[in-house]
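Hey Z.,

So I finally got round to the heme C thing we talked about over coffee. Here's the setup:
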Amino acid sequence: MNIFKILIFAVAILFIAGTASAQSLTPKEALGKAIFFDSNLSTPTGQSCASCHSPETGFTGPSSEINSTTVVYPGAIPTRFGNRKPPTAAYGGKSPIMYKKLKDNLFIGGMFWDGRATGWELGDPLAEQARGPFLNPVEQNNASKEVVINKIQNSDYATLFTQVYGHNAFDNIEMAYNQVADAVATYERSAEVNPFTSKFDYHLQGKVKLTKQEKNGEQIFNSSGKCANCHISKRHDKNTPPLFTDFSYDNLGMPKNPDNPFYTQLPEINPDGVNWIDKGLGGFLETVPQYSQYAAENYGKHKVPTLRNVDKRPYEGFVKSYGHNGFFKSLKDIVHFYNTRDVGMWPPPEVPMNVNTAELGNLGLSSENEDAIVAFLKTLSDGYMLPLARNSIADGSPTNFGLLQNTPNPFNPSTQIRYELPIAGYVTLKVYNTLGQEIATLVDGVQEAGFKSVLFDASNLPSGMYFARLVADGLTQTRKMLLLK
Ligand code: HEC
Ligand code: HEC
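And the result:
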């Protein structure tokens, strides 16, 4: 095959793979997906929900550069910024309608860091959330619901909309707008967004073993680390594996993030300027007559986020930020904060009231303990490839030996190649072109067992198909990689 034929072949495979997953969505889920990824639904156009909630990062912010600098994402009007980091839009569908527990007056449920999409109006916090971004001036910035509905009415999925909600669906703007929110929430609850395909999930199903360090991390997470007190690691319900949140709110005493561009927004957006303080749940409760008496005891509290996909990133060096204001730039950082907030060198909390001192601040964990927790958190990323799946493409390899598909693929100009070694040994990882010529030697030497990852930089190479070949312990595996410039 010449390169051209190979390209057509590869594109055909991608296409088939793409449609296969689309076909598994119900019509309403497919409609929600079309809306979620439609970058025409902003003013000016160019911003979709996925601009801030993208699958390759576990439905949170897709830019390493933004995550490592402003943390907050610009709106459709690029000089405008909101005030918080985008949390994941996945695994939140089970958050209950916000309520106050009688026993201890704690608030549970709702969406957003401060819970303000309560679900009180629509009976569904997730759908209520989805009504916000289209009209938010610091996000998709459309002038009215009518503008959004007109855009959808003129989109290529307009017939899908009437197929799902009836042929009169566009007649009533108010109703149609709530249906948009319903479709988006339905997609956000779909198996495509919540696949439960992490190594941890397969471990629960007995299909793969955690490494010693990951197991150790799991244990500390559930015991002396106290993480599971809030990030619940038991099954959520009969049909739902652990979601790693109890949907409650807490003030962890996180420092202010001075790089948050919200501080320097115009007064129309931020009337408090540099003196702005993120009051979290308490700030929202102030606005609810029925609950304003509870505002003060909830200042600084933010919703406990799921920990699923906290480490999901497109390549090893990609930066993600953590916490409502993205103060932390690595998992090790935030775990170290939990461990040493009250005994280390940390800036003061943004909101000194209501800081939780019972469950964090001085955990007495060693650096190895912290690393183990991080290793455990890394098992929560969806898309883990089971050894069995790998064997189908391997030249007779034992369980747990594997060269994974490079990511991204197709790629330009560099891509991450991951592999796993069940035992230490002599390893070579080389790249060949379609003529069988050796292009690069990425690894050549003795390596410890474990998860490995190397970057393949093809800046100087022409477009086309390449082969990564891993040889270890007498076994060989090959993967195709497509460079598209
Ligand atoms: C400009 C970036 C941006 C865009 C565009 C955007 N979001 Fe968000 N999203 C955020 C931020 C920031 C938050 C947190 C805001 C807060 O808590 O105050 C958030 C919160 C959420 C949450 C709440 C998650 C939780 O656990 O509480 C969901 C769900 C969500 N967004 C879905 C969507 C959907 C659906 C769209 C499109 C209609 C969308 N987002 C568009 C930035 C964005
Ligand atoms: C008292 C409840 C509580 C405990 C205990 C707790 N967390 Fe959290 N966790 C939270 C809350 C609340 C947030 C969000 C706080 C904020 O942004 O202000 C959070 C945020 C996080 C985040 C950031 C997630 C994101 O999407 O930005 C990570 C990671 C995390 N926790 C891991 C852990 C680990 C690991 C432990 C144990 C060492 C732990 N947590 C213990 C309540 C808790």
